[in-house]
């Protein structure tokens, strides 16, 4: 549809609205719907035409007009409510006098209507409402997209999500599954005695993850504040205070680039429990995801793009060194502990590294470039270097690595967890290292959090923590290739004119 045609339709619809205003209230609010589409289908689905006629099942429905087929003195239409579509049959002689000509025929697709009637089946067997009353409840001033049976323009779907939801039933199902996933995650932890908390989104010091924060300014306090990048440090403060099982499911904000897997604000579930370690939390995380997948999907094998992600078998557990060597056969475990060997190998595969990177940082670079995308089935990676894990407890047998895991599936990170660092002096030292890196220009390095160190000085019980990227998890459950598909209102670059 051209802009001229679109504008002409808008003008015509506005002219109809003006007539409605002259006639009385154009946006009535006294219609009370009594039935939804799926309720009617569930109740009448097994009844044949004779049974429907005998029961004379009367309904009162409302929805958006999606199709209309006028055939002289009788017409068919479809309306759509939140639960689905319903066919309507309208006859001039069975509606109140004048309704068919002055109301129904003047309707436009997209208008919201209320209908009373009786259920019957057409010759083709479709459940249909034989309308006895029709009211226009809301005049739609803009025409539906041309392809209203399935809006395909990605930009329009993301920028005008209301249109996407209006015409794409699959999009509605995506967000129903997202809501069901969040409910199931909460239920899993609630049933295990976890306490849900809410930590501040605006913080004086950003912490809990290596990420570039958003900065805002509080005028009354005359101070800069940072949007939260993680909930972790607040949760662990609660453990210091005496709570033993704590979680938060909420938004985090990171000033990073946009991609199919990254949005500036995203939903994270972070959860900690005292007197457990990262082995226990791999077990807990695996159990939680398997249970949630089963509740939301009804099966444990989930199709995602060209793969089938299977949450039923035990998740594989492999160290980072083992994974790197498996995907890079020339390298040995000894090579993975040698900065020179790693630097040389990275060059052979076309990756140059910064000269001041540590061996652990080089190993992580190699893992992210050559291994991560190949981890299709749920896999725990352990043995993360200490220098890239500033909040994780060092491994007792090898202090160069930490008791940390990350869970990968469909070639991306889903969860991160570890035995939490509660040695106050070690934590203070790592904060100082992070602060030094920040001073050298690393915008993702953490700041020194003096209050958190004070909290640790009172004693943080041994505990394990985990964090689940809810958006990426939902992407898998809904077979969505982009994170924007599972966010109702994703961030978009401004539209350019001309």
Task: Give a quick summary of the entry.
The chain is an alpha+beta fold and 498 residues long. Helices cover 34% and strands 24% of the residues.
Determine and state the CATH class of the largest domain: Alpha Beta
Beta-strand content estimate: 15-25%
Question: Main beta sheet: strand number and arrangement?
Answer: 8 strands, mixed
Number of helices: 15
User: For this entry, what is the oligomeric state of its chains?
Assistant: single chain
Neighbour order of strands in the largest sheet: 6-10-11-18-17-16-15-14
**N- to C-terminal separation?**
18 Å
Key terms:
single chain; 498 residues; alpha+beta; OB fold (Dihydrolipoamide Acetyltransferase, E2P); BirA Bifunctional Protein, domain 2; eight-stranded mixed beta sheet; five-stranded mixed beta barrel; 34% helix; elongated
Would you write up a description of this structure?
The chain is an alpha+beta fold and 498 residues long. The protein folds into 2 domains: 142 residues, OB fold (Dihydrolipoamide Acetyltransferase, E2P) (Beta Barrel), CATH 2.40.50.140; 259 residues, BirA Bifunctional Protein, domain 2, CATH 3.30.930.10. 34% of the residues lie in helices and 24% in strands. It is built from 15 helices and 18 strands. The strands form 4 sheets. The protein has an 8-stranded mixed β-sheet with strand order 6-10-11-18-17-16-15-14, sandwiched between helices. It has a 5-stranded mixed β-barrel with strand order 1-2-3-5-4. Strands 7-9-8 form a 3-stranded antiparallel β-sheet, with no helix packed on it. Helix 7 crosses helix 9. The longest helix has 22 residues. The two termini are 18 Å apart. The mean pLDDT is 94.
């Amino acid at each position: 549809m051209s802009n001229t045609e679109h504008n002409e339709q808008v003008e015509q619809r506005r002219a109809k609205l003006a007539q409605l205003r002259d006639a009385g209230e154009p946006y009535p609010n006294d219609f009370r719907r009594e039935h939804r589409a799926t309720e009617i289908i569930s109740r009448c689905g097994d009844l044949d035409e004779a049974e429907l006629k005998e029961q004379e099942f009367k309904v009162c429905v409302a929805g958006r007009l999606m199709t209309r087929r006028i055939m002289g003195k009788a017409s068919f239409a479809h309306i759509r409510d939140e639960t689905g579509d319903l066919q309507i049959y309208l006859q001039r002689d069975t509606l109140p006098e004048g309704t068919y000509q002055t109301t129904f025929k003047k309707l436009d697709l997209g208008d919201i209507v209320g209908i009373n009637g009786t259920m019957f089946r057409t010759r083709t067997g479709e459940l249909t409402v034989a309308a006895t009353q029709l009211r226009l409840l809301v005049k739609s001033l803009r025409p539906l997209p041309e392809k209203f049976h399935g809006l395909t323009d990605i930009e329009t779907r993301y920028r005008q999500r209301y249109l996407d939801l209006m015409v794409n039933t699959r999009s509605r199902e995506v967000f129903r599954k997202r809501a069901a996933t969040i409910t199931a995650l909460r239920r899993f932890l609630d049933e295990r005695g976890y306490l849900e908390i809410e930590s501040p989104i605006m913080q004086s010091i950003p912490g809990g993850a290596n990420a570039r924060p958003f900065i805002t300014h509080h005028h009354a306090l005359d101070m800069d504040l940072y949007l939260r990048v993680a909930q972790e440090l607040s949760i662990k403060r609660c453990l210091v205070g005496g709570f033993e099982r704590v979680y938060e499911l909420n938004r985090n904000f990171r000033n990073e680039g946009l991609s199919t897997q990254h949005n500036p604000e995203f939903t994270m579930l972070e959860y900690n429990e005292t007197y457990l370690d990262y082995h226990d939390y791999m077990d807990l995380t695996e159990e939680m995801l398997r249970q949630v997948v089963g509740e939301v999907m009804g099966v444990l094998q989930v199709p995602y793009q060209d793969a089938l992600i299977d949450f039923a078998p035990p998740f594989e557990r492999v160290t980072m060194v083992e994974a790197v060597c498996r995907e890079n056969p020339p390298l040995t475990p000894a090579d993975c502990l040698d900065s020179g060997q790693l630097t040389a190998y990275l060059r052979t595969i076309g990756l140059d590294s910064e000269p001041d990177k540590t061996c652990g940082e080089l190993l992580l670079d190699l893992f992210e470039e050559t291994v991560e995308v190949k981890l299709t089935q749920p896999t725990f990676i352990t043995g993360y270097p200490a220098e890239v894990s500033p909040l994780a407890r060092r491994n007792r047998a090898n202090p160069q690595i930490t008791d940390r895991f990350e869970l990968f599936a469909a070639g991306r990170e889903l969860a991160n967890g570890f035995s939490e660092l509660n040695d106050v002096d070690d934590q203070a030292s790592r904060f100082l290292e992070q602060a030094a890196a920040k001073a050298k220009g690393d915008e993702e390095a953490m700041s020194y959090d003096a209050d958190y160190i004070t909290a640790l000085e009172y004693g943080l019980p041994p505990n394990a923590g985990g964090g689940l990227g809810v958006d990426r998890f939902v992407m898998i459950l809904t077979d969505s290739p982009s994170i924007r598909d599972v966010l109702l209102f994703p961030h978009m670059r401004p539209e350019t004119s001309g």
